[in-house]
Amino acid sequence: MVSLSTFCTEQVRRLAYFAHAVRSTMVAVLLLGLASASISAPSLTSHDAAMPSPEVISGATISAMRAQSAPAPTKAPTIDAISSAQGGKHALVLAVPDTYLMSFDGGRLDTYIANLNRALRDSRSDYYVTVVPFQATDASSQLALLKPDFVFAQSSLIISVAGKEGTPAYSVATRKVPEAKDASQSVGGLILVPANRKDIQKLEDLKGKEVVTTMPLAAGWLAVLGEVAKLNEDPEHFFKKTRFLNMALPNVFSALASGHTDSAVLETCTIERLARERLIAFEDFRVLNDQRDGKLNCARSTGLYPDATLYAFEWTDEQAVRAMLRVLLSAKETDFGEWHVHVSRSAMDELLKTLRMGPYAYLRTVSWEALLERYSYEILLGLLLIALLIANEFRLHRLVAKRTAELSDSLIRQQESEKEARQARLRLGSLERRNVVNQMSAMIAHEIRTPLGAITNFASVLKYFYPDMAKEDTPSGIAMGGILKETQKIGGIVDRVRQYAKSQRSQHVPIDLGRSVREAIRVLHMTMPEAVNLKADVVESAPMLGDSLEIELLVFNLLKNAVEASSVVAKPEVSVRLFSLDEGKWRLEVSNNGHELSEEAFEKLGRSIDSVKPEGLGMGLSIVRGIVDSHGALLGFTRREGGWLVVQCTIDKLPENAPSE
User: How many angstroms separate the CA atoms of 274 and 104, rounded?
Assistant: First the structure.
């Protein structure tokens, strides 16, 4: 149960809340309406001789008063020309921005003006003050039409009059709020969140959330944007949505209390003043980013800046400035605040520079965003042109690459054709030389057979007539046997040469490749005593299918060539190896450490009729290749570092089901 006293107290507080809101709203609407009338009808000539009550007159009335006393429309009016019927006093026009009228302090403007006029009257001054409102977002152009004597505005507004170069205003005095210790640190921003919002504990938590405030140019709102900038965030895109509700009471507080927004931004000391008048309950809200200290006896969420300032212009009468300044500096603080002169506004200038506002708005035009916004069409056109140029460059690149590829293919085909023609000429020359060699081989073999037959006959005659000398255990018998054996061997070689010349193959039978290799080594040592550095590594038995005499001739030629090639170096080395491969083949390797062959000489090894020796005819290599081909073997050459040349001959092993030798 709620007690009757508590219920009554709550109802009284609500009535006071709405009464203050209605009163502030009516004053703001009245003054803004008068401002619109003053701008839309500056040439009105009739006016009421008596000063309106309260001391707020429209811009139209001021224009009419100035028009009646001005000698010419082009001449600026003076204070002496602005008079009224109230004892000959001169009217001083005080322009006030809508941002101040919508603030909590703006609801007391009529009281401040009444106290100011009473102080002027008590000081026996010849002036009284009238108020005309203007819009802060269009201050320069409206002030150029109104031509007021003074402007009373927050420090966040840079007051100047639009013209060819702009006419700046001059600071006369700056007000200090009662809660502040220093006039230059009197006002800031206050961020409020509902007390039950645990998810918002610091300023960074408001990123991407909604916020409400009074006016775009209110000092408290600009101060909060400055704090956002200190976080290295973009003030213009930090909040998800910002709504400007003009009046702190009831608009801003209603939106926050009803949960229609995440936070609210006000000027400092606003909530304390409302709480003192029991218009709101402070415990329903929580201050975010609280920076409270001894500089200001109010909660705050931002740094502090100067409060409202009184400005004058170059046409303002200096006696009027003196009268106003004397009254402001000598009056009581309760009348219209405590005023100071020579108050630094460097903090506000730095804030405006950070936010690129006021005199620093030009910084927006030099940023990338401003350039994109201002020259978007030109930039788009330029990017399109660049894209076309890039596309054309790619097209040209592809075309050049295509033409280059076609030319390269043509050159490659031409080089291949030339290579094929050169190889064809080499093959033709090789065939011609081979035919010559075949003919010479047949002729030599035919001519050799006659003396071989005579030698055989002579040995047989000696053996017949001298049987005692032909006995095998006598030296003469051994000699006669050797003559007959070697003659038969020579005859066999002659027959093989004739068969090679006639491209005839001998009959292959099972033989021992290892025995043929060892026999070739024995003959090599007999015919070439210098082959003493020959190293042999031959398997004991290597059965294969072939002709033993041809295989022996093959190995002998390879060894003979290796010995001759290595004889040109200081320490000649020749080695022969015969070993088994896993795939059913024998590998014969003959290597030597002679001089390193050039590319041309190494290429000649692949041709059967060319010799790498200056005095050679290539017949030995041709015979070797013929024997290799007749046995279905493979012949290869490999170069190693240090001048080593390795000849590799791969021969099939004897099949397992074939009879052995």
Answer: 9
pLDDT score of 442: 67
Q: How remote is the C-alpha of 559 from its chain's centroid?
A: 67
Q: What's the rounded Cα separation, in Å, for the pair 546 and 393?
A: 69
Please report the DSSP string for 370-413 in residue order.
Answer: HHHHHTHHHHHHHHHHHHHHHHHHHHHHHHHHHHHHHHHHHHHH
> 626 near 597, Cβ under 8 Å?
no
> How many CA atoms does the CB half-sphere of 163 hold within 13 Å?
12
Distance CA 586, CA 514 (A): 10
Residue among 489, 548, 537 nearest 513 (CA): 548
In angstroms, the CA 375 to CA 377 distance is 6
Q: Which residues contact 249 (CB under 8 A, 6 or more apart)?
A: 17, 20, 21, 24, 104, 274, 279, 280
Contact 223, 162 (CB under 8 A): no
pLDDT of residue 81: 38
Counts of helices then strands in the chain (DSSP H, E): 18, 20
Q: What is residue 572's predicted lDDT score, i.e. its pLDDT? A: 86
Q: Please report how the helices 619-630 and 548-566 are oriented relative to each other, as an axis angle in degrees rounded to 10.
A: 140
Distance CA 109, CA 112 (A): 5
Question: Which residues, other chains included, contact 212 with Cβ-Cβ below 8 Å and sequence gap of 6+?
Answer: 242, 243, 244, 245, 251, 252, 255, 256, 260, 261, 263, 264, 265
User: How many beta carbons lie within 10 A of that of residue 568, not counting itself?
Assistant: 11
The DSSP secondary structure of 501-552, one letter per residue, reads: HTTPPPPPEEEEHHHHHHHHHHHHHHH-TTGGGEEEEE-S--EEEE-HHHHH
CB 188 within 8 A of CB 268: yes
Pair 220, 187: CB distance under 8 Å: yes
The identity of residue 116, as a single letter, is L
| pLDDT in the model for residue 50 | 32
Joined together, the tokens standing for residue 99 give: 């941002």
Bridge partners for 285 per DSSP: 194
Closest CA to 100 of 112, 89, 109, 91: 109
Nearest CA-CA partner of 127 in 96, 83, 177, 187: 83
Asked if residues 194 and 136 have their Cβ atoms less than 8 Å apart, the reply is no
Q: Which helix (H) or strand (E) holds 497?
A: helix 475-501
**Cβ-proximal residues to 275 (8 Å cutoff; 6+ apart), any chain:** 281, 282
Write down the pLDDT at residue 341.
Answer: 93
Given a contact cutoff of 8 angstroms between Cβ atoms, the answer to whether 132 and 148 are in contact is yes
Distance CA 489, CA 512 (A): 18
* Residue 382 to residue 376: CA distance in whole angstroms: 10
pLDDT mean values, one per 10 residues, the chain (661 residues): 38 43 46 44 31 37 37 36 53 91 80 90 91 89 90 82 65 92 94 93 94 92 95 93 89 90 94 86 87 91 94 93 92 78 92 88 74 81 93 93 92 86 68 62 69 77 74 76 77 68 69 90 80 84 88 87 85 90 89 82 65 50 80 87 85 78 56
**Alpha-carbon distance values, 409 to 414, 422, 423 (Å):** 8, 20, 21
